[in-house]
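F.,

This is the one I mentioned.
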């Protein structure tokens, strides 16, 4: 008796049947789970859905830890009536018990409800009214009730703190923050900018809107407005404790309200150099190792890219002759005169053709036809801007700065053009970058403006080769 197993492979199922002579003695279908889910708007990716929920959890946790850290600072300095023991029970998870919110702490609950005199009625109709009060009425800080008012306003600010612009953010998102979003019906910051100026702070502006029956929620706010308000409250109330101020305002790990968790490094995702990478055995698996690829914004890569293009340009004086490389002196002229555009990243090949055909070379025929005149050629955009700021000898630029370490010892730090490029490449915060240009490099205003323009338009991406490979190849290209 002959037996034949028939298999039908599909994308979501496998069909099987067993044939014995002319009889199908057994058959069946195994169906796989679909790789996508079914929603009201159609199919959706499970992976994308997991990523969305994970991002929400991380955002929620970041806000929660920020509030706890702010409360800790306020308690330690006498601006919140909550005991540190009760705060620790809320922060720390205990197996079998969980986290215990201080719901039985009456003074803390009254503090949350803005009932500072503990008469059972809120002293202010909203935290915005309190925040306006604190920039208009000077308080006696020897009275604990007054200190608690300041602490409650700071805690309210910590719960929000606003949007902070980053060059990593898309242009559309930044525009929506200032101009508003028609899709979400969220009001942009530009619409109430004058209110902030007239009333003195963001909180006072929102208190004014409340007075006039205007809805405060569903508005984009800037972190700088919250920061300015905190500084104004502390200055007006003459709170000069530098340690307390720093813990509220710093964005480093010692801060609370404005602390920003640094992004996780993505260096491991950068590809390896195509010339230097190799596979090695590691724990029984083949692993690709080698030098990481060079960013396309690096001046050495820009030079490598320009020389590679120039070396591909060839000419001949008659149709019967072979194409030959253009003279070295002409190559150098093209490199220095045509590729250093600080205002544009690309230019048309026609500009190179015009330069070559000048000075008695009009009879030269190039290996690029006239149809290629509109081909875009990448310029040395970053190098041109650095040259404009630091001069013709920009590659040898050095700036020495004397600084003191934590032990009080003076140490000299020298900044080269490579380190300045690395700061341009790695810094996320424009305020920190501006501070570096003013305090460390001590540049003039026009040069600071140029570098800030470069910072906000910095090229993103990676080449195929590592910086080491490029440095090895460049002498031959030149």
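My design for it:
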């Amino acid at each position: 008796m002959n037996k034949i197993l028939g298999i039908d492979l599909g994308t979501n199922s496998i069909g099987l049947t067993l044939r014995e002579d002319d009889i199908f003695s057994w058959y069946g279908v195994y169906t796989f789970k679909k790789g996508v889910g079914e929603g009201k708007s159609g199919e959706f990716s499970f992976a994308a859905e997991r990523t969305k929920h994970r991002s929400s959890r991380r955002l929620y946790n970041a806000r929660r830890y920020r509030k706890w850290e702010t409360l800790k600072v306020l308690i330690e300095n006498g601006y919140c009536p909550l005991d540190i023991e009760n705060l620790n029970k809320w922060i720390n998870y205990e197996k079998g018990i969980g986290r215990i919110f201080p719901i039985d702490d009456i003074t803390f609950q009254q503090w949350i409800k803005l009932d500072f005199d503990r008469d059972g009625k809120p002293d202010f109709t909203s935290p915005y009214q309190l925040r306006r009060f604190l920039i208009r009425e000077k308080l006696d800080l020897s009275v604990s009730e007054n200190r608690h008012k300041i602490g409650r306003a700071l805690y309210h600010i910590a719960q929000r703190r606003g949007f902070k612009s980053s060059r990593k953010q898309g242009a559309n998102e930044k525009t929506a923050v200032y101009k508003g979003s028609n899709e979400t019906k969220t009001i942009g910051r530009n619409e109430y900018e004058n209110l902030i100026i007239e009333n003195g702070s963001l909180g006072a502006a929102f208190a004014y809107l409340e007075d006039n029956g205007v809805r405060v929620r569903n508005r984009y706010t800037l972190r700088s407005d919250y920061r300015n308000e905190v500084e104004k409250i502390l200055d007006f109330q003459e709170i000069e404790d530098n340690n307390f101020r720093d813990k509220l305002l710093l964005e480093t790990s010692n801060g609370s309200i404005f602390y920003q968790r640094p992004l996780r490094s993505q260096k491991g995702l950068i590809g390896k150099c195509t010339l230097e990478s190799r596979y090695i055995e590691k724990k029984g698996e083949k692993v690709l190792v080698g030098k990481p690829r060079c960013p396309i914004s690096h001046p050495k890569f820009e030079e490598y890219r320009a020389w590679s293009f120039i070396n591909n340009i060839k000419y001949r004086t008659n149709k019967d002759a072979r194409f030959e490389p253009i003279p070295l002196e002409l190559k150098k002229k093209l490199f220095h005169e045509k590729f250093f555009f600080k205002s544009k990243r690309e230019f048309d090949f026609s500009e190179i053709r015009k330069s070559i055909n000048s000075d008695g070379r009009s009879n030269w025929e190039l290996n690029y036809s006239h149809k290629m005149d509109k081909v875009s050629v990448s310029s040395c955009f970053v190098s041109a801007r650095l040259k404009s700021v630091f001069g013709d000898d920009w590659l040898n630029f050095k700036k020495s700065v004397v600084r003191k370490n934590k032990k009080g010892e003076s140490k000299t730090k020298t900044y080269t053009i490579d380190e300045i490029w690395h700061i341009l490449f790695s810094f996320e915060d424009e305020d920190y970058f501006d501070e570096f240009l003013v305090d460390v490099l001590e540049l003039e205003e026009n040069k600071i403006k140029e570098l800030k323009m470069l910072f906000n338009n910095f090229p993103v991406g990676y080449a195929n080769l590592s910086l080491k490979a490029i440095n090895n190849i460049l002498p031959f290209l030149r």
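The longest strand covers residues 23-31.

Talk soon.
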